[in-house]
Design brief:
The chain is built from no helices and 9 strands. The protein is an all-beta fold and 107 residues long. It has one domain. The strands form 2 sheets. Strands 1, 2, 3, 4, 5, 6 and 9 form a 7-stranded antiparallel β-sheet that branches. Strands 7-8 form a two-stranded antiparallel sheet.
């Protein structure tokens, strides 16, 4: 059996995924351990012999993923500064994410 890969869309971004891969996506309101279906834009095998491109999604193709957990990303510091007026403001931000494990790709 050949291994498959797919390009999926979620949270306004596109990801190249393979079976067994764990990736971080934008936070989705799904509880930990529950399945999640992703929009499939392209499905292909590793050799490139069979490629299916969607318009915009591939009909009948599914990427089944399971939510592994939720969390917060690394802190990003944002600094506002105005010279000559003694104004400086520092704010930190941590982007929430959902970790998903890709279980199966069907075309």
């Amino acid at each position: 059996m050949t291994t498959m890969f797919a390009i999926v869309r979620t949270g306004g971004k596109q990801y190249l995924v393979r079976e067994g891969q764990t990736l971080r996506i934008e936070k989705v309101p799904v509880k930990e351990g529950e399945p999640l279906d992703l929009d499939v834009l392209l499905v292909a095998d590793e050799e490139g012999k069979e490629v299916k491109v969607g318009a915009p999604t591939v009909a009948g193709a599914k990427v089944l993923a399971r939510v592994a957990g939720h969390g917060l990303g690394e802190k990003v510091m944002v600094v506002k500064y105005k010279p000559k007026v003694r104004y400086k403001r520092t704010v930190g931000h941590r982007q929430p994410f959902t970790a998903v494990k890709v279980e199966k790709i069907t075309a």
